[in-house]
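Renewal narrative, Specific Aim 1. Our central claim is that a sequence can be written position by position from structural information alone. The example that follows is taken directly from our test logs and has not been curated for this report. It begins with the structure tokens describing the chain, in the order in which they were read.
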């Protein structure tokens, strides 16, 4: 199979939207001073039915990041459910709702992980068993301005050797994360799912496609496997195809569980697409290894579907087969040697990404190495392919229903070192994020975009990577090292998502460099979460430092004067890009470093630092390389086929 399979076998040795913690009849004991503001809006939503009413909510204990909401009802026992609706829009655009079981006439909710200095709009709702709704007035409150002087950085460890075992899983936080997928659910939690991989294979005691959740993207609660055993349909489907090819059944499958993607479809429905590989040779059916090589390619991979109405339960119902690896080479599955990279399969059925377009179309994007990345349309009701699939071998015409090629790194090679597609929609474009190269050290992330989900996709230079193929730019992440730290490698196979308030995030694994220590450090897989900022031209930039919920207070020009660490993320296969110092002086000149002699300027309204002709997008983030992880200022920018990262150090 693929190099990534062999690599992983070695492992055996808040700027986020409001989230609600509801407590019926209980008070929040937060004693943080109330220093925000609140007022009632003029739009009335008051109603009553059969003497039941709900009063205007109140907001109290308002801080930069949270507030307590209370609403009082009469005849509460006549109604079986209560809801809180909240939004940062006065028109409640994009409002979220969350249900609450309550046991008295008081509904209490604590909103946490709010944005500082931001207006929020809230109303309460009661619903009867006959679905009669009673609304409260809408109130607004504004969170307090955050204080950098009070900021405390995240405290979890990156070197998790002391907690790597299965019995320490409650302390893992973001330890042992690989190929993450992240979704925001109705309960205010972000749920993360991943490939079956961990240091020393510690995860194997707990099923497959492991889950964790967080309300602040910093503190993650480990939840365990979403699938307890491999569904019987996988081997049955494989042997069904083998019988049609005149091959004997596989009775001892070597499974691999890979790269799920999870999405909210609508309220009460969540879907997870997952990959299961049968890593046995097609010819003999024996588990693939150098010693058993029979001059055939490995068996196919399968993508299946699970659904749940409540991700908090971590109980998913398997819905079976969706698609599998397909070949345009008919039944010619012979392989001359283990160094033959010609690839039997056109599309390899792993690494799914699930997209619902603004028009309501559902698409599955998938693929790895081989010929590139495919897009296939789905039936929104079933989550399965819209068209009936024929047998997964034949000519290119025969297997056309298995998907349309939307990205290829090379039109001439079937072994492309690109995988892990992640597609999101933003401001008129579909952005296709791609993982490049081997996953141990060289892994890096690229992005291309298209106005159509099915392409053609272009990179920032205008290269048509759908029809002509080619390396994609810009680079999003790359092995790197700031001073004071070992730095990170293997940073890719990403999840990209929004909190629905136009704050965007990027998650991936990161690995320790191979030469860090003598204990297989490259087998460490730490989950990394970073913020994304968007350029004026509509391209995403991943910020260099991991997310730490630093208060986004106004940045003044005088704060930019001083010493920075600058990294040029130009592509360098398998090598870390290291930082060098650069100094900006008060006379708007760069006096040392990469751009010495250039002038600099700052647009405070857009948080753009311009040095020469390069625009660098500025933000406050956490300095992970400094003791205590204090707040600092960072930048990311794009040059000519280059991405720049930097952070202020003095």
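The sequence written for that structure reads:
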């Amino acid at each position: 199979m693929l190099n990534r399979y062999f690599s992983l076998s070695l492992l055996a040795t808040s700027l986020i939207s409001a989230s609600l913690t509801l407590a019926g009849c209980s008070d929040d004991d937060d004693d943080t001073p109330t220093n925000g503001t609140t007022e009632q809006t003029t739009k009335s939503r008051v109603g009553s039915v059969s003497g039941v009413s709900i009063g205007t909510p109140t907001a109290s204990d308002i801080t930069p990041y949270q507030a307590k909401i209370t609403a009082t009802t009469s005849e509460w026992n006549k109604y079986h459910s209560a809801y809180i609706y909240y939004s940062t829009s006065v028109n409640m655009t994009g409002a979220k709702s969350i249900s609450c079981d309550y046991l008295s006439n008081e509904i209490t909710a604590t909103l946490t992980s709010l944005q500082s200095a931001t207006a929020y709009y809230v109303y309460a709702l009661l619903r009867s068993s006959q679905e009669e709704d009673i609304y409260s007035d809408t109130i607004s409150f504004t969170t307090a301005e955050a204080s950098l002087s009070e900021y405390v950085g995240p405290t979890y460890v990156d070197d998790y050797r002391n907690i790597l075992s299965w019995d320490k899983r409650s302390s893992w936080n973001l330890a042992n994360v690989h190929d993450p997928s992240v979704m925001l659910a109705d309960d205010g939690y972000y749920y993360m799912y991943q490939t079956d991989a961990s240091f020393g294979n510690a995860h194997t005691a707990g099923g497959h496609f492991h889950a964790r959740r967080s309300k602040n993207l910093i503190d993650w609660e480990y939840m365990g496997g979403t699938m307890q055993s491999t569904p019987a349909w996988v081997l049955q489907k494989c042997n069904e195809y083998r019988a049609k090819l005149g091959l004997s059944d596989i009775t001892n499958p070597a499974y691999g569980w890979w790269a799920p993607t999870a999405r909210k479809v609508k309220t009460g429905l969540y879907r997870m697409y997952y990959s299961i590989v049968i890593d046995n040779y097609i010819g003999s059916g024996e588990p693939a290894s150098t010693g058993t090589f029979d001059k055939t390619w490995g068996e196919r991979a399968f993508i299946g579907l699970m659904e749940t109405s409540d991700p908090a339960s971590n109980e998913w119902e398997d819905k079976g087969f969706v698609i599998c690896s397909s070949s345009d080479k008919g039944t010619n599955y012979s392989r001359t040697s283990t160094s033959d990279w010609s690839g039997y399969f056109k599309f390899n059925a792993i690494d799914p990404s699930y997209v619902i377009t603004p028009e309501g179309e559902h698409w599955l994007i998938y693929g790895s190495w081989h010929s590139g990345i495919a897009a296939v349309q789905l039936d929104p009701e079933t989550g399965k392919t819209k068209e009936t699939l024929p047998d997964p071998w034949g000519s290119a015409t025969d297997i056309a229903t298995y998907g349309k090629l939307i990205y290829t790194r090379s039109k001439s090679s079937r072994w492309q070192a690109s995988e892990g597609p992640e597609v999101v929609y933003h401001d008129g474009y579909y952005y296709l994020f791609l993982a490049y190269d081997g996953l141990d050290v060289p892994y890096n992330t690229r992005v291309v975009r298209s106005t159509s989900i099915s392409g053609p996709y272009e990179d920032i230079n205008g290269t048509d990577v759908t029809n002509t193929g080619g390396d994609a730019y810009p680079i999003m992440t790359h092995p790197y090292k700031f001073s004071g730290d070992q730095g990170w490698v293997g940073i890719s196979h990403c999840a990209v998502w929004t909190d629905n308030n136009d704050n965007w995030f990027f998650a991936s694994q990161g690995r320790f460099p191979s030469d860090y220590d003598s204990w297989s450090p490259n087998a460490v897989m730490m989950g990394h979460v970073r913020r994304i900022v968007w350029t004026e031209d509509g391209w995403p930039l991943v910020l260099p430092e991991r997310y730490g919920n630093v208060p986004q207070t106004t940045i003044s020009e005088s704060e930019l004067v001083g010493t920075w660490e600058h990294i040029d993320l130009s592509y360098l296969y398998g090598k870390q890009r290291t930082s060098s110092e650069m100094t900006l002086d008060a006379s708007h000149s760069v006096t040392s470093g990469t751009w010495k002699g250039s002038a600099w300027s700052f647009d405070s309204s857009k948080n753009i630092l311009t040095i020469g002709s390069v625009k660098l997008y500025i933000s406050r983030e956490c300095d992970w390389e400094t003791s205590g992880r204090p707040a600092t200022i960072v930048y990311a920018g794009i040059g000519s086929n280059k991405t720049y990262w930097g952070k202020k150090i003095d």
